[in-house]
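Same chain as my last thread, 187 residues:
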Amino acid sequence: MSAVLDLPLQRHRFSRAQYEQMVDAGIFGAEDRLELLDGEIIDMAPQKSRHATAVTLLTEVLRPIFGSAHTLRVQLPLALDERSEPEPDIAVVPGSPRDYRDAHPTRAALIVEVADTTLAYDRIRKLAAYARAGIPEYWILDLAGETLEVCRQPMGDTYGERRILQITDRVTPLAGSGEVAVADILP
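reply #2:
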């Protein structure tokens, strides 16, 4: 019997450019729901009805709060850095949709992830990526707990301020001009 060495295996990390080349080459099918985070290609969880309803409610509530100075992008790529191109449920980005005709946005005023089965991933991996990219405000809508986690003040790979709001609470987005009632964005 030979001794087995317990050596850590190196993972190949993809760049955004490599990932986009694979997409363009048709390596992934149209039905594949993927995103690139920290150089890893991640399978995204299938959307359940409650998740889809929450995304729709968020869109309806946030659009008038941000007005024409921002665009709400729903489940579309955000070019965070050279190794990350996640597809957040909602990204509120500056400008108009045509500003991103030739390239995905690289910054956002607010990102919202709806957590049905992905709460730990959204609280750890995505939070760290958004904080490192300097996203000023990140929300996690926890469907099971019926809460909204509001993260502000990015510092390295975390946020200096993290509050969990209950269904009866309200919050004003940093870059917005109006309040959001947590009850209004829960299905």
